[in-house]
Specification:
The chain contains 14 helices and no strands. The chain is mainly α and 203 residues long. The protein starts with a helix and ends with a helix.
Length: 203
């Protein structure tokens, strides 16, 4: 679909109610093609939060064909496009998104960073992504790694706990099924031996 056609579609949608817009996006998702995927990705660059959110939802269901383009959109100059791409990747839950998402924790925009935390927690809840998340965190400098793990554990200690366990004892985590987490089993102090350096520096 050429740029002129896309521009015409946005002009038409501007005067329609939300239900019509949602129906149009849903129709594109039901008949995926290179053109429809291109249009849905372009929605992430629109100013309408409603359209971006709905497009992110349907893109998250499309799997591999949109994984690469969504990762590319993480480098967009528009903060809301980056945030929408992050949201779509989090909802998709593909383990290959772990490293790109971890790399977005230093985004200058707070809304984007908040979306990254949500996306990483979604991946933490996906057992298939544990190894990739652990590798992505291990690749960070020590202080950045502590900050990232601290943030995840504060938001959801149970979800992040398996990733922390894998990082500490990867062989054991692969061979032995992890027990159900219990209160007091894991704390941030156990992981780094004290309060996160990044939090201390911020005080």
């Amino acid at each position: 679909m050429v740029a002129k056609d896309v521009a015409r579609l946005w002009e038409e949608l501007r005067h329609r109610d939300p239900e019509e817009k949602l129906g149009w996006i849903t129709q594109l998702a039901q008949n995926p093609s290179e053109d429809s995927i291109e249009v849905l990705l372009d929605v992430l660059q629109q100013e309408s939060w409603f359209l971006r959110d709905q497009a992110a939802r349907v893109l998250a269901t499309m799997g591999e064909p949109v994984l690469g383009p969504l990762v590319e959109y993480l480098g967009s100059g528009l903060w809301y496009t980056r945030a929408s791409a992050v949201t779509a990747l989090g909802r998709m839950g593909n383990p290959r998104a772990a490293a790109p998402l971890v790399g977005m924790l230093n985004d200058p925009n707070r809304t984007v960073r908040d979306a990254v935390w949500d996306a990483l927690l979604a991946l933490c809840r996906n057992e298939l992504a544990t190894r990739e998340l652990a590798q992505a965190f291990d690749a960070l400098p020590e202080r950045a790694r502590r900050f990232a793990l601290d943030g995840l554990l504060e938001r959801d200690a149970e979800a992040a706990g398996q990733v922390v366990l894998y990082m500490e004892e990867p062989a054991q985590a692969q061979e032995i099924p992890a027990p159900e987490p219990r209160e007091g089993d894991l704390s941030w102090k156990d992981v780094v031996g004290g309060e996160g350096e990044a939090k201390q520096a911020a005080r």
